[in-house]
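As a representative case, the lines below give one protein's residues and fold tokens.
***
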Amino acid sequence: MACVLCWSPPLAGATAAQEQIGNNSLGFVSAAPNVNFSDTLNGKDQTVTATQALDIGDARGSGAGWNITATSTTFTAGAVTLSTTATTVQSAPTIACDSGATCLFATNSISYPYTLPAATSAPTATKVFNSALNTGMGDPTVTVTWTLAIPGKTLAGSYTSTWTLSLVTGP
């Protein structure tokens, strides 16, 4: 007679589990915020600082590293300009993992102080911060402290400069 309700114990042995993790992209999570310096002339040479938080998203899963590059036009107020070497970063930017994210902090090899390139037409961008191979993955924020040198002989005015920051692949 054939078994109508039969039960057989499961076969012993290995099972397999798989997860396919896809990659996404590299980019700024949000647009780079504007940098606003403020100063009151006092007849002496001065420096003022301003910070800029750059939110990085590296979801490529490749460990290829990345660079933040920057360039600018000269600070001008009408026909008056500041030096093309007026903007610097005196020490390495800080890096922190965004809330709710796990990161592998970037290993930065840029030497400081760094001078932001500037000219009437923005010159070739240079690296202001980088992430070595197999670092910088996840969702970190790099905070740059910019320093602007203002000579004591500077004319009062509203000086502007156009900055271009890019996030590009590679250490």
Q: What stands out?
A: The CA atoms of residues 69 and 166 lie 5 Å apart.
